[in-house]
Amino acid sequence: MRGDMVQTLIQATGSNRSSEARDGKARGRAFITLLFAVIALFLLLALLVGTSAYRAANDVRSSSDNTRLGLSLIANSIRGTDAVGVADGPEGLALVLTEHLGNGDYETRLYAYQGAIVEEYTRAGTAFTPEKAREIVRSSTFDFTYTDGLLTVH
User: Fold this and answer.
1) In the list 36, 55, 109, 152, which could disulfide-bond 120, CB 3.0-4.6 Å?
2) Mind giving me the DSSP string for 40-54?
3) What's the pTM value of the predicted model, to 2 decimals?
């Protein structure tokens, strides 16, 4: 009888140990799974932050490129003209660049119209036709000063 008790006690102790080992393995697996989930969540957040930062930087660069392109076009138009003048445009002052060609005088008119700076190329002396003008760059303002042969465009 005493041997049976000892045998039962040994079996009970062995089963407790295997139960503890199983519980330890389950806790280890749960910890690893939780750690993996936290790392995956952190990486997802980092990806989202990086994507939004890239998008914002790209928008600023694109806007800057468009503005620079429009200003370069205006500057090159001014350099290639025979005379610079000012006229009343549809929504304020217009910069008028005149070319003297063999078959008459032509004007390149730069002015603000419906939230953009537009360019209109036409015979000198004709009325403004903004619907035929070509948009150069989106801008809410177009301001310039022309004094003593110095043109400043804002």
Assistant:
1) 109
2) HHHHHHHHHHHHHHH
3) 0.58
